[in-house]
Amino acid sequence: MAPPSAGEAARYDTVILVPARNEEVGVFTSLDSLARQTRRPDLIIVVVNNSTDRTREFAQEFADSENAPPTVVLNLDNNPHKKAGALNHGLNWLREAVGGRLTGAIRHVLVMDADTELHPKFLERARNVIASDPELGGVSAACFGRTGLWSNPWQRYLLGMQIIEYGRAASARYRTDVHTMSGAGSFYRAEALQSLIDWRGEVFWEDHRNLVEDYETTLALKESGWKVTANELCIAYTDLMPTLRELIQQRERWSRGTVDTLRARGWTKFTWHSISTLILALLGSAYILGWGSRTLVTAARYGMAHAPLFWALIGFWVVYPALRVRKLGWKAMVVEAVLLPELVYTVVRTYWLVSSVVKSYMTRVSAWK
Hints:
The protein has 369 residues and is of the alpha/beta class. The protein has 13 helices and 8 strands.
């Protein structure tokens, strides 16, 4: 498909950017969720990014289908800057197509991962939210994990805990000042993205050390004067990690990238909440695992009467976690009330948090080959 002329692009309300690296399994499903939107996008740009599988082939198959919105498939074979480089490549192509600037030619840009499926009303709802406040630079999705993908009891547990984790986060996001515009689905005002280009020459920071381009860009938007928010009705369904190794690798990348970014920024009015949350998470995990384990041993040796405070807290932690996930249904509430599944997951979470901090200070981020 040839680039649209500036006159055509001036009529674009919403353009979608989909970076895709080795996503042959899910890219067609993700793109199809865009075709089924109640407010269809005007243009989809798929940036096939350092892929070694058939991602480009499947994306092009979607682009050639009769029911697809106008879709362009760009191929980026030599990209050292990970997802940020792919996104900037797509934005640069778009800017050239509309005469050099996004402002005035395009109203909104949605960035979504190629392993994500959007709710059919995502675009419609996101447009309504961003129109409610001219100072809003972006609306982040509420992310939920896809269900029913397990093949054995351990995998069922691992995926189930991730589903609960995503659901809990979606219900309790810091909506007035969200930590991160989710890479799974972030709906930006084109004017806000253009302001970042004018300020620093690019929207997404191109550096192979940038592991969390979504978080870094969120901070950049705030620093340039834009507000960001999240909306629980703008729903994105994302893939979960089927094995413990893949889960730890994913979370270490996210957490380590966040620590790297916070270290580079320092303590500011835009980072203090994230820094405080990280410190409290580490202290809370250490306290629960250390004090809780010692108290359990004491209770087992001398009986429950010797640990009344512990059992009072247990009563609280049976009710409170269950209520936090009530929107996910009774099964999730039972899992949280039992406590043991969440305790095991807390051990895993503590491991990736601690290892991420250590790696941020002790190791370098390797570039893509």
